[in-house]
Amino acid sequence: MLTVETIVQSLASGLLMGLLYGLIAVGLALIFGLMDVVNFAHGEFLMAAMYATFGCVVFLALDPVFAAPLVAAALFALGAVVYLGVVSFAMRAKTNVGMVQIFATFGLAILMRGLAQWLFTPDYRSIPTSWLANKTVPVFGVFLPLPQLAGALVAIAAFGGLYLVIRRTDFGRALEATREDAGAVALVGINRNRIFALGWGLGAALVGLAGAIMATFFYIYPDVGASFALIAYVTVALGGFGSVFGAFAGGILIGLVEATTAMIMPPALKSVGIYAVYLGVVFLRPRGLFGSI
Amino acid sequence: MPTDFPERRRRLLFVAAALVVMVAALPLFVRDVYVQNILVLTLMYAALSQSWNILSGYCGQISLGHALYFGLGAYTSTILFTKFGVLPWFGMLGGGILSALIALALGYPCFRLRGHYFVIATIVIAETAYLLFLNWDWAGAALGINMRVRGDSWVTFQFARSKLPYFYFALGLAALTWLVTWALEESKWGYWWRAVKDNPEAAESLGVVVFHSKMAAAAVSAFFTAIGGSFYAQFVSYIDPDSVMSFHFSLLMALPAVLGGIGTLWGPALGAAILIPLTELTRSYVGGSGKGIDLIVYGALVMIIALARPEGLISLFAPRRRARVGK
Prior knowledge:
The structure holds two protein chains of two kinds. By secondary structure, chain A is mostly helical. In chain A, 72% of the residues lie in helices and 3% in strands. Chain A has helices at residues 4-35, 42-60, 64-90, 97-120, 146-168, 170-180, 192-214, 224-239, 244-264, 270-284; strands at 136-139, 142-145. By secondary structure, chain B is mainly alpha-helical. Chain B has a domain at 26-246. In chain B, strands 1-2 form a two-stranded antiparallel sheet. Chain B is globular. The two termini of chain B are 24 Å apart. Chains A and B meet through helix 3, helix 4, helix 8 and helix 10 of A and helix 5, helix 11 and helix 13 of B.
C-alpha cells in the first residue's frame, strides 16, 4: 500500500540513487563538453572500477571506503591511456567523424567486456564484507541504506570538488578555455592534447569513484556496465550534453523518476519512466534542460 | 569521371546481377548445413544493414534503435500466424507496413532532435518497446512464442529439413534492398537525403523539405527492416524479446554498413560478407570456452577497422571514387 511513509521512503532512496547516477554520468558529460566525444565504453569504465574495488578487497584486504581513492587513481590512468591510445586516433578521421568515435569506443567496450570475462569469468561477484554494507541510518524517521548514503555524500563532495577545480585552478581554466575553442588555446601556450588526456583521466576517475561505491551494494559481472551506461547517456542528455552541472541535476531527476515509476508500475518497467521523461524533456527542449544552443 | 552517367548506373546493375547469380550458385558447392546457416545470416544482415543505411547512411540520421522495427516485423507475422492462422506472407507485409507507420509516428517528434539527442532517443524508444514486450503476457512475455509448425511448405514459409529456401529468400531480400537503394540513390530523394545529411540548413534554404526527406527515409528503412524481422522469425521459428528486440540487434544491423562504408551502395553487403562469417566462426571456435576471447577479437576488430578505415572497407576497392564530404 502507498502511504505517506513509503512514498517519502522511496523518494529518499531515489534521491540517493539519483546522486549516484549523477556521479556515474558526470565523467561522460565532462568529456563530451570538452571535445564533443561520447564515450560508448563509459559503462565498461564503471565495470573496471567495480572489479578494481573487488580486487582491493580480496587481495589487499582494503575496505572499499579506502580503496576508492586508489580505484579513482587507477581509472584516471585508464582514461588517459584510452584517450592517447584510441580516441586521439579517432579524432584524426577526416570522414564520418561521429561514426568513427561511436564505433571505436564501442569496439573498446566489447573488448573490455571480453577481457573481463577472460580474466574474471562471467560469474557474479559481490564484496563479502565491507564497513558500509547492510547498515541503515535513520534520518528524520526515514531509513537510508548506508552504502547509497555514502555514495550520495561522495557524489556531492565530488561535484563540489569538480566545481572548485574548474573555477579555481589553472587546469580548470585551461579546461574551460579548451572547451570554448580547442584551436585558439594553442596560441596561448596550452597543449590541447595534454588537456584532453587529463580531461579523460578526470572523467574516468569520477566514474571510478562511483564504481567503488557501487561495488559495495551491487553485483559485479562483465556486463554490469551496459545497464548503467544507458542511464548515464540519458542523464547527460537530459541535463544537456556537455553541461557538467546539468548531469548533476539530470541524475537527481532520474533517481526520483525511477523511484516514482517503481511505486506505480511493475518494478520490471521502472526504466520506462526514465525513458518517458527523457523523451518528454527533449521534445520540449531539444537540447536538454541546461544545454546551450 | 569521363564515363557516361547512365552507363555507370547500368554497369552497377550488371555487376549486381552477376553477383546474385554467383551467390545463388553457392549451395551447389556448399552442402554443409553449418556453412549454409552462416550464408543465410550473412545475406539477412546484408539486407538489414542496407535498410539501416538508407536512414542512417544516406540521410545521416543515426538510428541505434532499429531493433524496434526488426522486432515488430518478427512479432507481427508470428502472432498473426500462431494466434489467428494468417499466412506469414501477409504477416510479413503487414509487419512492414505497421513498422513504416510507426516510424512515421515516431519520426514526427524525433526528427526535430539533432545529433546525440536523436541517437539516444532511438535507443530509448526501442528499449521501451523491448521492456513492454518483455512484460506483455498476451505476446508471450519473456518466454517468447514458438512458431506453430505446419510442415515444410512455401505456403506457410516453413522448412525444417532444408535451409535452401531461406537462403534464396534472404538472397532475394538482399538483392531487393540493394535495388531499392540503387533506384533511390540517384532519384530526387537520394539527392535530398545527402543534402540533409551534409548540411540541413543549406538544404532547407535551397528548397529541400528536410522534414519530409527524413520521414521518407525512415519509412522505407523501417519497412525493409521489419520484412527482415519476419524472415528471421520464420527462419529460427522461435522468438522472444531478447532474440529479436534487444539493443544488440540495433548494433548488429549498423555494424556491417559502418565497416563496409556508410552511405554507400555496396558498403552494407561488403561489411556483412566479412563481419558475419567472422563473428560466427570466432563464436564457434573460441567462443565455446566461455572465456570471452570471441568478444576480445570482435571488439578489437571493430575498433581497428573504425580507426584505420573511417570511410569503410569499400574505399579499398574504389580508391578514386568521387569524394563526398561526410560529417
